[in-house]
Amino acid sequence: MIPLTNILDVQQPVLMVEIRGNENNPLLHGTAIFSPTPMGGVLIQVEVFYLPDQDLPNHSGFFGMHLHQNGDCQIPFDQTGDHFNPKALPHPEHAGDFPPLLSGHGYAWMAFYDTRLSIEDIMGRSIVIHGHKDDFSSQPSGMSGEKIGCGVIIKI
Ligand SMILES: [Cu+2]
Ligand SMILES: [Zn+2]
Question: Can you give the pTM of this predicted structure?
Answer without folding.
Answer: 0.94
